[in-house]
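CO-FOLDING WORKSHEET

Operator: S.A.
Ligand of interest: adenosine-5'-triphosphate
Run index: 415
Mode: holo prediction, single chain
Checklist:
[x] sequence pasted
[x] SMILES validated
[ ] output reviewed
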Amino acid sequence: MDAEAESRTGSAAHRRTADYSRFTISAVGPTAGESVVQMAQQQAGRTRGNGDPVPAAGSAFLRVTDLVKSFGSFTALKHISLDVRAGEFVCFLGPSGCGKTTLLRAIAGLDPQNGGTIHQNGRDITHAPVAGRDFGIVFQSYALFPHLTVERNVGYGLVNRQRGKAEIAARVRELLALVGLHDQGHKYPVQLSGGQQQRVALARALATSPSLLLLDEPLSALDARVRVRLRDEIKALQRRLGVTTIMVTHDQEEALAMADRIVVMNEGLIEQVGTPAEVYRHPTTPFVADFVGAMTFLDAEISGPKRLRLGEAEISCSDDRGLMQGTPVRIGLRPEEIRVRNVDGMTPNRLSTHVAFIDFLGSFCRARLELEADRSVALTADFSANLMRDLKVEEGQMLTVALPPESLRVFAKAS
Ligand SMILES: Nc1ncnc2c1ncn2[C@@H]1O[C@H](COP(=O)(O)OP(=O)(O)OP(=O)(O)O)[C@@H](O)[C@H]1O
Ligand SMILES: [Mg+2]
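OUTPUT RECEIVED:
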């Protein structure tokens, strides 16, 4: 079995020295899944009783330092450093090819790095073989064994560890109950839906109570409705288990909904690390601003302290990032932040616009607003259904809008 296959099944983890026998598996009953929860919490260092170092709340459980990974002359990871705290749910978010999977695989030891170090739970695992690491992994493609039943897929790693039959059966029952598949154990993967298969993969990854759960785009092969449901389930499960989790995704909505912190990556580098609210509200680079959520960018120039020249208009911002007068900048603003209600003579940053077109998107409408002073400059604005009805916004009309100063993110042009 190759390293990847081993890691998928968890069998590699079973041959390592960590002792799972200290955990007792409770009988399945009304509290099915609780012992799994306790085991995972113990592994995550939330509870004591095993003699292992207990990471202090908020300390780095996983520390990646100066990681470099090259494929031939191409450098896929360029000196990546990152701390993941115990029990945290972290998403690696970025466009295709930015290095998300490469970083995840380096953490798992599947594609060893060329430089840098990785520490997990205080242990230097930089050069540890896959079999010597403590993680469970789920891939986009499920990667279940087609010739094994669901039960045997989930219990595969435990069999490899030569656990007793009764113990394995109880554990598998618990895990299947945990992922909502208690009555599906006898089926083969081909008899399950994509969402169910991914639940099996998740149960299998959790079978050994790893202290680190790695998920590589686990939801991207699923249809939209299943994806949202499973996303909520995975998040709730992760919270319950307290298992430190890293999930790769290129879907910003998924990252915003699931992550405690998001690591935004671009071309082998980390652009920003922050909570979903921080990354969304205070993107530190134009790339992050553009990639996470919708953002309109406008060319402007610093015309004074917290003052900007936008074409003919003079507007104010609440943070000019200390840039000098005359500096060319890009202003970023979110479509939902453009104000239309209660705009009067006292409202700062008023602009006359022409409603060029309106896209109906169900619960809201997205409009293209062209500045009256210069029709080549356009803003994207989102209007709620209520607002559309109340103000009777229609294509072709003139509309006075305001750009709240605190909503204007200013980026130096060069960055
Ligand atoms: N085994 C390999 N050999 C050569 N180049 C590779 C290899 N694996 C990845 N790369 C390159 O490294 C870069 C990062 O790839 P990676 O798979 O980490 O991207 P990703 O962010 O996961 O993208 P996606 O969202 O498409 O999965 C890409 O340019 C890719 O072509
Ligand atoms: Mg990938």
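REVIEW:
The radius of gyration is 25 Å.
The longest helix spans residues 224-241.
[x] output reviewed
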